[in-house]
Write a structure and sequence with these properties.
By secondary structure, the protein is an alpha+beta fold. The chain folds into 2 domains: 78 residues, Alpha-Beta Complex (Penicillin-binding protein 2a (Domain 2)); 338 residues, 3-Layer(aba) Sandwich (Beta-lactamase), CATH 3.40.710. It is built from 15 helices and 23 strands. A hairpin with a 2-residue loop joins strand 14 and strand 15.
Length: 494
């Protein structure tokens, strides 16, 4: 929001005893007396600014001085009453190279033109030398307020997410973390938070690397959360059914590489549903071989990877997908379980949201309505991009994801009585051309209630120290947030 502040200006030709006035003004606005004196003593200047965005209390002190030639104009100052809450959504207002208010990052940057309004002006007649003619005509053009933005963001959900994220960062000893909550039916962002963050009110005190939102500009390897998308592609192509079986008898060799299960346990004859339940890398290679390189890459693009999502936040990036000719057999295998590919959190949550929305990929949005000062408004309607899989496939994969939650490693953390469709992920972090065996990104993605999803959510934790596994860190954090959301939305147990 904007708070009342003032531009303080002087009209030097109307000022008498500039020496005394300069000292009194300088003591209130906190500037050097000599600079103020030099400014207000120049008779060639009809109007000079002394201070920008001076807050109301100090302005009142100046008014009480009753100095002839000292004037005040309202000059809104951006204010963030919730401190650092939703910083990566909001962005901040700073100054450009000309000293003008300019929005940077988040909504402030993306919607800068809509928010900034129009500055007021004083237009003077000038003489041949360019000096204002004091007895000439002067025209005053009043400033116009900028537009207001109404958001999909729910303040209560945002508070839940930020509180739980900080608890999770502390509990699991993670270096970084993030949570996105989205409405799968509209693409509306209900909450979005990342740690570390900053305070938009005092952004200059923080490292500039914190300004960009890692949720839209940062990339990571999704690990096993990616398996649900690859499985959905195989279901859509009718290459497998949930009951299709394969033999998981041990590690498999792909070229010069050996691929094992995450815990080196093998379960013999397993169904496709059990492949997700056990999060079997060997089983996903089986799926990838059935899909083949061409179809897998097509579905990756259809799910929105390799392109911008179009979210209305500044600084969105999209990791490129390699050309089909550059994909080797091992690349196809590792991509099936989410390694060797890079995605952004907003890309990942949008892709899984399609599985909760009858297969429709939506364009994510933070702003729901742009409100003009004259009472009119521009409603940003939900935007469908394309249908990636059929409603039937989306229902089947949802049931398989419910089974993965109910029978998987994280089943102990799920709120009782609720059907949650989800999948854990644990991806090693690439460092200097190889994977660090100890550093991981733990994640969990899912939606609930599974039969009529109210929200889809992605949780990521970078380098958790209590455990490297998503099932022991990101999953319980996901379920803690989900439990709060069930209560907030008054969704009863089933």
């Amino acid at each position: 929001m904007n708070q009342v502040a003032y531009l303080v200006y002087a009209e030097p030709r109307q000022m008498q005893d500039a020496q005394t006035h300069a000292a009194r003004i300088a003591s209130i606005i906190g500037q050097d007396k000599g600079d103020i004196l030099a400014t207000i003593s120049d008779p060639a200047r009809a109007w000079v600014p002394l201070a920008h965005k001076l807050e109301a209390p100090k302005t009142e002190e100046l008014k009480k001085l009753d100095i002839p030639g000292l004037g005040f104009e309202k000059e809104p100052k951006r204010y963030y009453p919730e401190a650092s809450m939703a910083a990566h959504i909001l962005g901040f207002v700073g100054s450009d190279e000309h000293g003008r208010d300019t929005g940077y990052f988040g909504l402030e940057g993306y919607y800068d033109r809509e928010l900034r309004g129009k500055e007021g002006q004083l237009v003077f007649e000038r003489d041949a030398k360019g000096f204002p003619i004091l007895v000439g005509d002067a025209k005053r053009i009043e400033a116009e307020d900028g537009r207001n933005l109404a958001l999909w963001v729910d303040r209560s959900v945002q508070q839940i997410v930020e509180r739980r994220l900080m608890e999770g960062i502390k509990k699991y000893g993670a270096k970084e973390g993030s949570v996105i909550v989205m409405d799968p039916k509209t693409g509306g962002i209900l909450a979005m938070a990342a740690y570390p963050s900053y305070d938009p009110r005092d952004f200059v005190r923080f490292d500039k690397t914190l300004y960009k939102s890692p949720l839209v500009s940062g990339s990571y390897e999704p690990g096993s959360t990616f398996k649900v998308l690859v499985m959905a592609a195989a279901l859509e192509e009718k290459l497998v059914k949930p009951t299709t079986t394969m033999e998981e008898t041990g590690p498999i060799t792909v070229g010069d590489y050996t691929i094992r299960t995450w815990n080196s346990e093998y379960h013999g004859s397993v169904t496709m549903t059990q492949v997700l339940e056990h999060s079997s890398n060997v089983g996903m290679v089986f799926i990838a071989n059935k899909l083949g390189k061409e179809k897998l890459l097509r579905y990756m693009r259809d799910f929105g990877f390799g392109e911008l999502t179009g979210i209305d936040l500044e600084e969105e990036s999209a990791p490129e997908l390699r050309d089909e000719s550059e994909w080797r057999e091992i690349d196809l295998a590792t991509a099936s379980f989410g390694q060797g590919i890079a995605v952004t959190p907003i890309q990942m949550v949008r892709a899984v949201a399609a599985l909760a929305n009858d297969g429709w990929l939506m364009e994510p949005h933070v702003v729901s309505e742009i409100q003009e000062t004259k009472g009119r408004s521009i409603v940003r309607k939900p935007k469908k991009i394309r249908q990636v899989v059929s409603p039937a496939t989306s229902r089947i994969i949802a049931e398989m994801m419910v089974a993965a939650v109910d029978n998987g490693e994280a089943k102990w953390a799920k709120p009782k009585g609720y059907r949650v469709a989800g999948k854990t992920g644990t991806a090693q972090i690439p460092v200097s051309g190889h994977y660090d065996e100890k550093k991981t990104i733990a994640s969990f993605v899912g939606f609930a209630p599974a039969d009529n999803p109210k929200f889809v959510m992605l949780v990521t934790l970078r380098e958790p120290t209590s455990s490297p596994w998503g099932s022991e860190t990101a999953a319980p954090l996901f379920f803690a947030v989900a439990g709060d959301l069930f209560r907030y939305y008054a969704i009863p147990p089933q």
